[in-house]
């Protein structure tokens, strides 16, 4: 009997109480670790999706966005996972055959069906926002614009997604949502640091949006947001007809008033390269509400390049009307604009053109020098140097680059000093800079007005803490047990 007790005293692990205690603690550790690890696992694997169609004046793009389901209100969680460019021109070009507008979207929508898991289709919102091309069509022919919108609506309703509507968005929305997109993607709302202004150049309109230091004198140019607990008082303006395609038309119409030859059949243009010679149609220039003064161009004319950058800039300046301003300061056309402030992200055609011309970095003076050199390069050399670039784009880069420099310097009043504050960007991370992401975030309420409550610890930290804490408790139990055993042995020895 004494021998047996001695064995038990020598080896405490043989005590039933110790074995039970060990088993219970092991079970507790396993349970805590398992719960901590799997707690959010099933949610983490769940993603939600949203589709936005950007029905621009020149073309339509379909964007698919994705975000983890449980992090809907965390900033920076939504990312663009897929883009599909609809073949053909923008939906406004289907004004005479509206039924084709809806059909044009089918290929990209089929692609969206493949990209998004079937189980998520019914809850995936689809938004179509049309911009300046449809604004112009509505001005010209409201019935035709309604038919085009009805056609795309019918087409989009046929898909298994949750269709939320097709509409022409306002210029202010286009500007403001572009601003939300670039600041959301740059994580500026959560950091509550400075924000990035947004410059968007499309085919038919251009937008400028930023937080000014000056008071905003015109109500039409104000938009307020409260995001993540901060108030933002924005200046925004959208210039309809000042997208690069419409300004090209305006500028050709202007030139046609004084540079036509005797037979009215040749239009000489300093913004096109020497040796460029292309037959164009009267309709290509005048079939738009942006060109008000229809002039003497014949049905067909020859567009001939002169390759003279200084003259080109003079001719482009003529499209900016600086003759009137009823505010303390204006950009052009009598539109109020405070002084530009802070850094800007310039995207869409600002990026396409400046990237091609290699002008995304460097000074304003460098940019002008490079433009002068580029515009004076003969057309045949340009074609030889860039055989893979679409001829339409290639022929227009001299004009487009000149327009961009003129718009930024003489229109928006950027100077040599703050030129470096303009960053020409296409994407931030995986997502394109543009109004679509901001539009979806706003319509799905994914940017809350107040900052969401954040857990004290991230998930990983929580798991590690629980494991360490449990091990510590176990260690303390073990030490306490050893201590208890030693004191009982000493007591037993004392009794003996
Ligand atoms: O905003 P709106 O005015 O409705 O027009 P959009 O949305 O269709 O306009 P984009 O930003 O898609 O394109 C702006 C312009 O840039 C042109 N563009 C697109 N890719 C280009 C490239 O690689 N090089 C030069 N121009 C390009 C396009 O044809 C348009 O004229
Ligand atoms: Ca656009």
UniProtKB/TrEMBL annotation:
Is this entry keyworded Kinase? no
Cite the entry's keywords alphabetically: ATP-binding, Calcium, Disulfide bond, Glycoprotein, Hydrolase, Magnesium, Membrane, Nucleotide-binding, Transmembrane, Transmembrane helix
Annotated active site residues, numbered on this chain, are 174 (proton acceptor)
Coiled coil region boundaries: none
What does the entry list as the binding residues for ATP? Answer: 203-207
At the top level, the lineage of the source is Eukaryota
Its topology with respect to the membrane? Answer: Multi-pass membrane protein
- Which BP terms from GO are recorded? nucleoside diphosphate catabolic process
Per the entry, which co-factors are needed? Answer: Ca(2+); Mg(2+)
Q: GO terms for molecular function, please? A: apyrase activity; ATP binding; GDP phosphatase activity; ribonucleoside triphosphate phosphatase activity; UDP phosphatase activity
EC number(s) of the enzyme? 3.6.1.5
Q: Show the stretches that span the lipid bilayer.
A: 17-38, 462-484
Reaction(s) the record says it catalyses:
GTP + 2 H2O = GMP + 2 phosphate + 2 H(+); ITP + H2O = IDP + phosphate + H(+); CTP + H2O = CDP + phosphate + H(+); ATP + H2O = ADP + phosphate + H(+)
Compartments, record wording: Membrane, Caveola; Membrane
Would the keyword Calcium turn up in this protein's UniProt record? Answer: yes
Pfam families, A to Z: GDA1_CD39 (PF01150)
* UniProt GO cellular component terms: caveola
Role of this protein = Catalyzes the hydrolysis of both di- and triphosphate nucleotides (NDPs and NTPs) and hydrolyze NTPs to nucleotide monophosphates (NMPs) in two distinct successive phosphate-releasing steps, with NDPs as intermediates and participates in the regulation of extracellular levels of nucleotides. By hydrolyzing proinflammatory ATP and platelet-activating ADP to AMP, it blocks platelet aggregation and supports blood flow.
Give the matching PANTHER family: ADENOSINE/GUANOSINE DIPHOSPHATASE, ECTONUCLEOSIDE TRIPHOSPHATE DIPHOSPHOHYDROLASE 1
Q: How does it assemble?
A: Homodimer; disulfide-linked.
Q: Member of which family?
A: Belongs to the GDA1/CD39 NTPase family.
What is the name attached to this protein's record?
Ectonucleoside triphosphate diphosphohydrolase 1
Source organism: Triplophysa tibetana
């Amino acid at each position: 009997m004494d021998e047996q007790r001695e064995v038990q005293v020598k080896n405490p692990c043989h005590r039933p109480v110790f074995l039970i205690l060990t088993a219970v603690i092991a079970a507790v550790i396993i349970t805590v670790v398992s719960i901590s690890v799997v707690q959010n696992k099933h949610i983490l694997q769940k993603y939600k999706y949203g589709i936005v169609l950007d029905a621009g004046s020149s073309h339509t793009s379909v964007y698919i966005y994705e975000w983890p389901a449980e992090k809907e209100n965390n900033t920076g969680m939504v990312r663009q996972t897929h883009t599909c460019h609809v073949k053909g021109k923008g939906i406004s070009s289907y004004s005479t055959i509206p039924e084709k507008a809806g059909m044009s979207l089918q290929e990209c929508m089929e692609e969206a069906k493949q990209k998004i898991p079937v189980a998520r289709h019914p809850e995936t919102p689809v938004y179509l926002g049309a911009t300046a091309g449809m604004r112009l069509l509505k001005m010209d022919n409201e019935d035709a614009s309604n038919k085009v919108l009805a056609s795309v609506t019918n087409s989009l309703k046929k898909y298994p997604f949750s269709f939320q509507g097709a509409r022409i968005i306002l210029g202010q929305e286009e500007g403001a949502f572009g601003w939300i997109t670039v600041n959301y993607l740059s994580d500026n709302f959560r950091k509550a640091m400075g924000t990035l202004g947004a410059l968007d150049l499309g085919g038919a309109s251009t937008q400028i949006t930023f937080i000014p230091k000056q008071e905003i004198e015109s109500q039409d140019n104000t938009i307020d947001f409260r995001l993540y607990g901060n108030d933002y008082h924005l200046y925004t303006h959208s210039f309809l007809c000042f997208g690069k395609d419409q300004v090209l038309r305006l500028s050709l119409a202007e030139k046609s008033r004084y540079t036509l030859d005797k037979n009215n059949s040749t239009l000489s243009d300093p913004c096109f390269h020497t040796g460029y010679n292309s037959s164009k149609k009267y309709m290509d220039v005048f079939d738009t509400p942006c060109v008000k003064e229809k002039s003497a161009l014949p049905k067909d004319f020859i567009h001939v390049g002169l390759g003279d950058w200084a003259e080109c800039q003079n001719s482009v300046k003529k499209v900016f009307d600086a003759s009137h301003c009823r505010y303390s300061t204006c950009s052009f056309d009598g539109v109020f604009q405070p002084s530009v402030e802070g850094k800007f992200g310039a995207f869409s055609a600002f990026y396409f053109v400046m990237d091609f011309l290699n002008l995304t970095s460097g000074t304003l003076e460098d940019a002008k020098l490079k433009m002068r050199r580029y515009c004076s390069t003969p057309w045949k050399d340009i074609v030889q140097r860039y055989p893979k670039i679409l001829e339409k784009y290639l022929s227009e880069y001299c004009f487009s680059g000149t327009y961009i420099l003129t718009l930024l310097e003489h229109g928006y009043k950027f100077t040599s000093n703050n030129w470096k504050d303009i960053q020409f960007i296409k994407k931030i991370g995986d997502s394109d800079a543009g109004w679509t992401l901001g539009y979806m975030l706003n319509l799905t309420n994914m940017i809350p007005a107040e900052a969401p409550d954040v857990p004290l610890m991230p998930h990983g930290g929580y798991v590690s803490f629980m494991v360490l804490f449990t091990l510590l408790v176990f260690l303390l139990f073990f030490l306490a047990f050893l201590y208890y055993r030693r004191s009982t042995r000493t007591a037993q020895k004392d009794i003996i």
